[in-house]
Amino acid sequence: MAESVASAAVQNVTNQAMEYASPYLRYFFCYGEIVGDFTNQREALELKKQRVEICVGGARRQNEVIYKDVENWLIRAEKELKETQNLKDEIDCVKCSKWCPQWGWRYCLSKKLAEKTPIISELLKTSDFAQVGHRGSLQGIEFITSTPFMDSKSSKLALNQIMEAIKAVNMIGLYGMPGVGKTTLAKEVGKHAREQKLFDKVVMFTMSQNLNIRTIQDKVAEMFGLNFQTNTEEGRAEELFRSMQLMNKILVIVDDLWEEFKLESIGIPFGDEHKGCKILLTTRHQQVCTKMNCQKEILLGILSEDEAWVLFRDKAGLDDDCSSLNDVAKEVAGECKGLPLAIVTVAKALKGESLDGWKAANQRFKDSRHLDNEEVLGGVLKPLKLSYDYLKKDNNQMTGNDIQMCFLLCSIFPEDYEIVIEKLIMCGIGVGLFPYANSIEDKRNEIGIALKKLQKCGLLLEGDYAGKIRMHDVVRDFAHWLTSTGENMFMVKDKLKEWPDMVESFECYTAIALWNCSCNIKNFPYKVEFSKLKTLFLLGEREEDDILVVSSTFFEEMKALQVLYLERVYFSLKGFNSLPDLKTLYCIRCKVENFSSSLTNMTNLEILALICIEVDEISEELVKLPTLKYLRLSGASFGKMNFPPKLVSRMTVVFVASRN
Fold this sequence. Notes:
Helices cover 47% and strands 14% of the residues. With 660 residues, the protein is an alpha/beta fold. The chain is elongated, with a radius of gyration of 41 Å.
């Protein structure tokens, strides 16, 4: 027993000596313990690192953002495991070596292991993470995916203008006609803003006509990683408002805005509420930019002819070595008139078609057979139809109908035609637009306002000269598609060499425009029943010296006719006795039989325009027209023109420019 007590005492003294003595002694006498401790700790670190990496991988697959301390821990763990791999290899070498002086080697190795083990132990102590990541805010799929961007002259100019503007102002408006590429350009702006790190966050959402505020709030909240605590739109708007105020710089892209809208109702702070929040909105309507107080309004125009062909060829997958196909394809591309949406839609629809297929489509475009081309134009018609339908929503029912009819009337003019606004006004008054307006002048103003609205929403374009407007050819095709069926059916022929072989179906048309009619038409009818026809444009061919001769009975069965526009036509007014509703008669360079004696038959005539027509004295006959309110006589040699005071007093407009 005495020996046992003595042995224990010696061991205790030895342990205390080892504890308080120089640690270098431990490197000699505790090599096995140090190696075992190091090996166990390192293996534990390997296993722990593997588990953390599995958790991190799962979190990333759930689109979670990994906490920085977790990422740092993995970096440190990887570093330590790499650095201690050499020590592990040395341990294995010591075990296998039989010739090396083991004591010196063991001492050095034991020292290295003893110094590394506490570091590994500390890593293990800090490895218990309750969560390795959190649900992060989204970046926006619009700016992640690759969106084809046509770097055209107009889009590049608009892009540069926007990028400069967002540095200086808070609200920017990008407007243009449907299909011109506003959304694509807006996405490009978002990408540039992100790449250049101009903003902490870039958010984009679409307003559309059928606005759903909650859906928009949900999308924006996802972008900021916000989970709503309230359920009402107002409460969610306030939560979103406060959340966005915490971020310094934000770009909000509001796509496809149709009308004035308070962004605060969604929860978007800007202006004095958040000077670091910039707004870029896209719209078809310029007046929306004005109503939203945009400090910069930017117009996005169409593509040039060369740019259009490059885009068309790319989307149609055409090769340079197929000259015959490319010749036809260039004609088809030309029908798209530089409108990107039309170019992309038509090119994709015809991609892979045979030469015969391309020729057939091209001929349908030339013949204006729009129903036959509906499959090709389908992607273009839908956005244009939205703009057309919105004319009613943006105005009251009656005004909306009248604005739509103004748009349809523009489509009866030829392709690429500079439409004289005054002609359009006289036609619009004749068909009874804006009936609530009391006077001719009020109606003129209303039609003028309607045309401005159509321009601002991209359905009409400014003309090259003052007092004129234009209709983009693709938009004109859309209008013809609208008037190919339904209540308002139009027939428009840009060049007429022979009378259409479809007389039996004329009954359904409400407007007919026959341009450039050859005076040699053999089967030109003496009489046609147009019981629903309200508007008729009949023009002789410009290139021919002779004018188109029309029988005196031709107009007799047009009982509903309200507007008659004649140019380079030889006709008689005898048949006009049966036109009780005729309100507008517009004649240019025509020859008329017995004009003065027949004029009094038109008892409901309100507008009379005689341009470049040789007539006798007609002043007394004009007095006998009880409803005449607008008279335009110009560019011709008139006889004695002494207008009686009674006539002048009841006229709204009198324009006389005679040539003597």
